[in-house]
Amino acid sequence: MNAQIKALLASYGRSVLGAGLALYLAGVPLEDLLYSLLAALVPVALRYVNPKDPAFGRTLPPVEEIAEALKDVKVVKAPTKKAPAKAAETKPATKKAPAPKK
């Protein structure tokens, strides 16, 4: 387990301890104490998502590394769509000769 994961878990533990202890001392039901476990995850997740957080925020790779990776990418142009076919012209029906009268 690397240092960043350990720091995340320690931060989550402190959040759980604070939220759970506050609710326990307030005398809330057990179900609400369990929801506090989920609520304690929010501050830790916010710190993880923040790229400017120096402790354990997500960091992007250096620009040079991205530029080098993009050198090998081959751009493929998408095929153009063909125009829909024209509808076939219908010829008017020919009239039949009237039947001879008897």
Structural class: mainly alpha
What is the rounded Rg?
Answer: 35 Å
Distance between the termini: 105 Å
- Mean model confidence by pLDDT: 78
Low-confidence stretches: none
Individual helix count: 4
User: How many β-strand runs?
Assistant: 0
Topology order in helix (H) and strand (E) letters: HHHH
Helix content: 40-55%
Strand content: under 5%
Report on the biggest sheet.
none
3D shape = elongated
Summarize the structure.
51% of the residues lie in helices and 0% in strands. The protein is built from 4 helices and no strands.
Can you walk through the features of this model?
- By secondary structure, this protein is mainly α.
- It has a domain at 10-61.
- Helix content is 51%, strand content 0%.
- The protein is built from four helices and no strands.
- It has helices spanning 3-26, 30-39, 41-49, 63-71.
- The protein is elongated, with a radius of gyration of 35 Å.
- 2% of the residues are buried.
- The model has no long low-confidence stretch (mean pLDDT 78).
